[in-house]
């Protein structure tokens, strides 16, 4: 026993000596030991604490600042070019994303448009843009309105693929240009479209279920809580998102939720289009602070377009790219850009927001080129600003109000209008050349060239190095899509299983949002009930029998008029589904492009979720009308239950057909305004071809074919056959007499119902293909 104790003490002493030999003191906490310290890069790793200090200077260097956590991930720390050099394992609260470097070289985008005479016109949007983004950087794209900020975001994220766009140059990730960027990038659009009747936690849970199919429920919940903590949303996780009709979270919280949804899958690159729109200066600064911390902590690239932030917000960016009319007029750290404009354009005024300064200076160059250089303005030497503005009217083709004495230089005009010194630059093109030849422009080009020389694109296996948790053993050259899937940790799952999983979560999301909406659960039901009561009151207890044949025919005409109005109103019910589908189109395009789910999964889920709402409200409406108007007859050979069954089957088939056609219309409707323009047109045509005003056989042949796809016609015909049942009697006259008058005596009610259902299925299939086709064009525009 004594020997064992002595052996234990000796072992304990040896271990402590070894630890003391290879450990260093934590500079922030002397009592705490740290296992790694890299003084040259300002890096300290110890326990669960990591500090990577950022120099926030120019060039292509940047680093990270991360704290806490227990899950291991790989961070690449580069000395000059973040795409190479050393890799170390660290502990972070959130898994560090896969490290990539994004570059664009000589990127030019031209849009082909047609004028009012249908002549082609090529409009340049971006002109020879060089751009580089390294891991852990927050990059701001600034510029006046119409400068090309959103186009640059879409081009870098791979969302410009239409025939109307002519793209020159290249966009590469780690040197690879032939990559589906949808797997590697996420986009937070300017307008947040989130379902208002879901809580933050429910919204995150459904997106996590779609994006992380291989995670267990427990792992997904941990991931959600982790991201909510990072984005500062944990305290409001059970609050409804809200919207126009529902009070919910604030605008800043909604924007952070949109970002959190895109972070679920740890994307290497995150794009944001005007993320501060609608936020005050304080909330905009808070949001950019979150994004800066996110980039420095996880190592992802965050690129956002922004107008003129306040000075504190402007300083948060690691890099700024300044655009004007498609030209890059400045690029680098905020201080580099301000210094460049101070040296080249005009001196930086005291007590002035640097962001406002560079935007004003950019606008100054643009206005000088547009208004002053291109024409002669004759004004008095002591002209006021008002007189100068009147003189400028002459440039727009209008006559000046009075003659001026002599000319004044453009410097005097600019000094009066802007209070700045005018640059001696004749055009934006010249300004762009000055920037390209400056040390700042040369640094960007050298950084891109150095990066492309260092990466190896001969073997796709190089993409899997240093990303962590990716098995690259025995890896062969694979198709691009497979490579992107593995990079994004989207291991392929069988098609049917994926489809069922996506339908499950999408249907759940739609149903939760639908049934919590009082406009649906209470509003539509109340409206349909009131409408049914009014309809039943107008046609209350319609008599079937008459004192003579004329009265009997008049009673039949009243019932047929009721049937026509009911069938027409059923057709109009489908506009609700049409509006909802169009409103959701934008989010569907964004989510399907980012590979969250397939278009057919959304389309099928939408139909499944809509089915109970569509058919329950119609059942309530038609049931009230049926029994209030008394269109049934208990003295017939056909029982009352069978009569009501035929009535219900006909109306349900009609609403199925009407909503099916609404899916076709929604597939090419880009806004609710378009819906309200085209829907009444089709509804009116279908009502005219139903056979009520003119029997179907008397409609001219050249337009009669539209009657075969009329949603009103099949509902109207089925309801008539359910009331005027063939072989029965209507008062003293056989029903065949009335059916013959409307050319329906040869029509079978069940055949009519089956045809309506089959036509509805055909419309839904057509609607899907049209949706899938327009999806490509729509995502380009977004």
TrEMBL record:
One of its GO terms (molecular function) is ATP hydrolysis activity. The keyword Ribosomal protein does not apply. InterPro entries: AAA+_ATPase (IPR003593), ABC2_TM (IPR013525), ABC_transporter-like_ATP-bd (IPR003439), ABC_transporter-like_CS (IPR017871), ABCG_transporters (IPR050352), P-loop_NTPase (IPR027417). SMART domains: AAA. Residues 1-20 form the signal peptide. The keyword Transmembrane helix applies. Its main location: membrane. The chain crosses the membrane at residues 520-542, 562-582, 613-632, 644-662, 674-693, 705-725, 749-770. Residues 111-350 form the ABC transporter domain. Keywords: ATP-binding, Membrane, Nucleotide-binding, Signal, Transmembrane, Transmembrane helix, Transport. It is found in: Membrane. It is a multi-pass membrane protein. GO terms for cellular component: membrane. PANTHER family: ABC TRANSPORTER G FAMILY MEMBER 28 (PTHR48041), PROTEIN SCARLET (PTHR48041:SF139). This is Putative ABC transporter protein. It comes from Cryptosporidium parvum (strain Iowa II). The lineage of its organism: Eukaryota, Sar, Alveolata, Apicomplexa, Conoidasida.
């Amino acid at each position: 026993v004594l020997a064992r104790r002595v052996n234990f003490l000796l072992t304990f002493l040896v271990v402590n000596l070894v630890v003391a030999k290879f450990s260093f003191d934590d500079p922030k906490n002397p009592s705490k030991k740290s296992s790694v310290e890299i003084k040259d890069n300002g890096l300290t790793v110890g326990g669960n604490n990591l500090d990577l200090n950022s120099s926030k200077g120019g060039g292509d260097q940047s680093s990270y600042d991360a704290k806490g956590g227990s899950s291991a991930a790989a961070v690449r720390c580069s000395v000059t070019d973040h795409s190479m050099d050393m890799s170390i394992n660290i502990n972070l609260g959130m898994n560090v994303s896969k490290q990539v470097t994004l570059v664009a070289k000589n990127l030019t985008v031209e849009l082909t448009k047609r004028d009012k005479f249908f002549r082609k016109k090529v409009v340049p949007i971006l002109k020879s843009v060089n751009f580089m983004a390294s891991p852990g950087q927050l990059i701001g794209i600034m510029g006046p309105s119409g400068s090309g900020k959103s186009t640059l975001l879409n081009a870098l994220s791979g969302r410009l693929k239409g025939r109307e766009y002519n793209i020159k140059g290249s966009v590469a990730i780690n040197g690879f240009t032939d990559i589906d960027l949808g797997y590697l990038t996420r986009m937070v659009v300017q307008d947040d479209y989130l379902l208002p009747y879901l809580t933050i936690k429910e919204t995150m849970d459904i997106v996590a279920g779609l994006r992380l199919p291989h995670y267990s429920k427990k792992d997904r919940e941990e991931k959600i809580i982790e991201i909510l903590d990072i984005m500062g949303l944990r305290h409001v996780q059970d609050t409804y998102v809200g919207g126009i009709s529902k009070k919910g979270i604030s605008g800043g919280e909604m924007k952070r939720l949109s970002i959190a949804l895109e972070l679920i899958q740890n994307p290497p690159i995150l794009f944001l289009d005007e993320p501060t729109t609608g936020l005050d200066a304080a909330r905009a600064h808070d949001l950019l602070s979150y994004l800066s911390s996110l980039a420095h902590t996880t190592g992802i690239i965050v690129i956002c377009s922004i107008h003129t932030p306040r000075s504190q917000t402007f300083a948060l960016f690691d890099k700024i790219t300044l655009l004007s009319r498609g030209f890059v007029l400045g690029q680098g750290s905020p201080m580099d850009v301000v210094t460049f404009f101070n040296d080249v354009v005009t001196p930086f005024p005291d007590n002035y927001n640097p962001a406002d300064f560079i935007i004003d200076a950019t606008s100054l160059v643009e206005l000088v080129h547009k208004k002053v250089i291109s024409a002669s303005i004759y004004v008095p030497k002591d002209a006021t600003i008002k007189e100068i503005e009147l003189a400028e009217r002459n440039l727009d083709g209008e006559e000046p109000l009075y003659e001026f004495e002599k000319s004044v230089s453009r410097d005097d005009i600019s000094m009066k209008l802007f209070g700045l010194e005018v640059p001696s630059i004749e055009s934006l093109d010249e300004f762009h050349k000055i920037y390209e030849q400056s040390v700042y422009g040369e640094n960007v080009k050298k950084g891109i060239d150095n990066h492309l020389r260092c990466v190896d694109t001969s073997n796709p296996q190089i993409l899997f190095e240093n990303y962590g948790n990716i098995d690259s053993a025995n890896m062969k050259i694979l198709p691009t899509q497979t490579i992107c899937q593995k990079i994004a940790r989207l291991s392929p799952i069988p098609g049917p299983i994926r489809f069922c999983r996506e339908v499950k979560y999408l249907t759940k999301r739609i149903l939760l949002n639908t049934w919590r909406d009082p406009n649906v659960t209470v509003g539509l039901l109340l409206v349909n009930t009131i409408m049914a009561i009014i309809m039943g009151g107008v046609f209350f207890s319609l008599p079937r029998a008459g004192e003579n044949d004329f009265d009997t025919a008049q009673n039949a005409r009243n019932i047929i008029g009721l049937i026509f109005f009911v069938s027409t109103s059923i057709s109009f019910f489908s506009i609700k589904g049409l509006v909802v589908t169009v409103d959701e189109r934008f989010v569907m395009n964004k989510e399907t492009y980012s590979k969250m789910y397939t278009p057919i999964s959304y389309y099928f889920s939408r139909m499944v979720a809509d089915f109970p709402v569509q058919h329950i409200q119609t059942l309530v409406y038609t049931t009230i009308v049926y029994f209030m108007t008394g269109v049934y007859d208990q003295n017939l050979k056909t029982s009352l239950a069978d009569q009501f069954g035929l009535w219900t089957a006909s109306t349900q088939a009609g609403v199925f057909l009407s909503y099916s056609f609404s899916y076709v219309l929604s597939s090419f409707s880009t806004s609710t305004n378009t819906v309200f323009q085209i829907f009444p047109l089709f509804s009116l045509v279908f009502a005219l071809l139903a056979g009520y005003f003119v029997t179907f056989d008397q409609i001219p042949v050249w337009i009669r074919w539209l009657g075969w796809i009329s949603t009103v016609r099949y509902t109207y015909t089925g309801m008539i056959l359910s009331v005027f049942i063939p072989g029965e009697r209507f008062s003293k006259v056989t029903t065949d007499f009335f059916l013959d008058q409307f050319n329906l005596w040869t029509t079978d009610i069940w055949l009519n119902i089956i045809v309506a259902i089959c036509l509805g299925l055909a419309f839904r299939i057509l609607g899907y293909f049209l949706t899938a086709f327009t999806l490509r064009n729509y995502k380009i525009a977004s």
